[in-house]
Amino acid sequence: MTKHPSTKHLMLFLIVIITIISCKKEKEEEPLVDNLLLKEWTGPYGGVPAFDQMKVEDVKAGMIQGMDLNLKDIDAIANNPETPTFENTIEEMERSGKELDRGFTYYGILSSNMSTPEFRDIQTELAPLFSEFRSKITQNEKLFKRIKAVYDASLKNPLEADQQRVVELTYKGFEMNGAELDKEKKERYAAINKELSSLYTKFSNNILNDEENYITYLTKEQLGGLSEGFVKSAAKIAADKGQEDKYAITNTRSSMDPFLTYSTERELRKQVWTNYYSRGDNGDEYDNNQIIADILKLRRERVELLGYKNYAEWRLQDRMAKTPENAIALMEAVWPAAIARVAEEVADMQAIADKNGDQITIEPWDYRFYGEKVRKLKYNLDSDEVKQYLQLDKLTDALHYVAGRLLNFTFTPVPHGSVPVFHEDVKVWEVSDNNTGENIGLWYLDPYARDGKRSGAWATSYRSHTTLDGKKNVLSAINTNFIKPAPGQPILVSWDDATTLFHEFGHALHSLSSNVKYPTLNGGVRDFTEFQSQLLERWLSTDAVINNFLVHNKTGEPIPAELVAKIKNAATFNQGFSTTEYLASAIMDMKFHMADPANIDIDKFERETLSELKMPKELPMRHRSPHFGHVFSGEGYATAYYGYMWADVLTSDASEAFAEAPGGFYDKEMANKLVKFLFAPRNSVDPAEAYRLFRGRDAKIEALMRDRGFPVTTN
């Protein structure tokens, strides 16, 4: 006889079942995430990363779990039985992978700002897993079938402009990454990506190794020509490394550049120069030449699977230049004038060396040193004198002033401890709309060089603006490598470094001014996204910045008008050097990726290409191939380094538009057009069309030639 449960027991049983189902449903909707790297951000300002709690030991498990969660999101979209629509396919893809996105924020900090040998080991393990993860998405046939269905439908019945742009970018991204290949080719494509990911990581870590381990230590007798501030910083760095009573010249641009400019010790200049330009090229276990050869072969094989002749052809199809031939044509138009100017600069330097009885022939380690002497002679301009008026904190105030004038942003310091930071040197500001008081986001500044931080300067966003599921504010950051001064000393930077600071802040403003709905539209076209940042450099030399923020670090006196006149008069000084060293790297990047990589000898190819270009022997490429991280530690700038020059054509042309406006560089109408057409849309509008909306026409190369003081030829 079956015993029936009582009503009370039945009710309890149903409650338990409902609870289990409810918990299961809740778990499916809100995955259990216990790894800090993946957790929802909490705290003020819409939630902020818990940088002060991140630990290297969380990285591997966190990133693996993040990838698993993202793939579950993708599978749900791909297996949706409903007819594909923009909403149930593209929008859902835009929402997917939030946990992994947060994980990559921490991962990026640990990789670029706080790297350690322990982290690099984990990075090496994860690189191929990241590649496999990406392949599982781009090669998901069900997912691509849905994307293509939405794309095809949109060609017949176009969507709203921003939705159409997202669909086209998504479809093109999958197509360019092998979504339409057959099974066998897809497997090879994925295998190539996996192998490349490991090579990129090793290339990057090899550079970091050479930057950390090639240090030149000076004695007190070897400090000739160096400024007091530089000497104090060098002494502190040496002491921190256990070398008391010595002075350290680290193997980074921020240390190398001023040393080569001012040191009177020629043999030491040669040593420091050699250390820096030999990174990744020392014939040891950290040598990058074979890695480059392997990368080039794999990249070529991969694009051949897709039917392209070479990597450059594949990469540039969705850039402003469209083809490698167009990019090369621009560079070749500028190159003759650049190397001709180098010859003039070298002649001026050699004349000074001869007059001083130095009995030398100008070599690469002499260029900055004698160039500075020419600057003093021709323009009566002393870079070290200018530096006394370029204080980092005042320049930071200048950045905020410019943002206020152009975008109506207000920057308010966030009290130390109110927002977590990953290092005590990091500073944070709240960014608000000056008219409404509305929070735009936060801006982080990590200013100093240190062990484990990659060299150079860069901008990044920890969170980007979207309105897809409610408005999200922006967490933006810039990172520089200024040498940290001795306690109580001001942070003085060169004019070039101040320009770099404005450049990176341009990237930050581009991010902070975003007004897009969909996350994908916060991306960009490489030869266009550099334009906004290069354009902002021009505000450094505006009267409003010079008159209000360039004051002497000891007296507080404003920079004298006659010194300002000298700076402006010398604006095109050394353009031969700066243009040629950059262009040589950009041309080399393109030539590498158009050449047959089958039996390529990297060192020989570099030498022969430079010889064909008639590269002046007195200066190197800005980035020699074995440490060309832009191109070989990932793919962001591969066959895209030319983009700085392409963007500079836009910059020069746009600058002339501001200069001609009634209010100059602070003209309100021009500023509004700048924000409306060039900053706020991000990648929601085709870049060429965006520029035409701003300028009323395409940009002209003649503006660039005028900017650099090169001859302008008219047809």
Automatic annotation (TrEMBL):
Molecular function, one GO term: hydrolase activity
InterPro entries the UniProt entry points to: M3A_DCP, MetalloPept_cat_dom_sf, Neurolysin/TOP_dom2, Neurolysin/TOP_N, OpdA_N, Pept_M3A_M3B, Pept_M3A_M3B_dom
Pfam families: Peptidase_M3, TOP_N
Peptidase M3A/M3B catalytic domain boundaries: 259-708
SUPFAM superfamilies found in the cross-reference section: Metalloproteases ('zincins'), catalytic domain (SSF55486)
Needed cofactors: Zn(2+)
PROSITE patterns per the UniProt record, alphabetical: PROKAR_LIPOPROTEIN
UniProt EC number: 3.4.24.70
Gene3D superfamilies recorded: Collagenase (Catalytic Domain), Endopeptidase. Chain P, domain 1, Neurolysin, domain 3
Catalytic activity: Hydrolysis of oligopeptides, with broad specificity. Gly or Ala commonly occur as P1 or P1' residues, but more distant residues are also important, as is shown by the fact that Z-Gly-Pro-Gly-|-Gly-Pro-Ala is cleaved, but not Z-(Gly)(5)
Assigned keywords, A-Z: Hydrolase, Metal-binding, Metalloprotease, Protease, Zinc
Ranges where the Oligopeptidase A N-terminal domain occurs: 83-186
Family affiliation: Belongs to the peptidase M3 family.
Name the record gives this protein: oligopeptidase A
Organism: Gaetbulibacter aquiaggeris
Taxonomic placement: Bacteria, Pseudomonadati, Bacteroidota, Flavobacteriia, Flavobacteriales
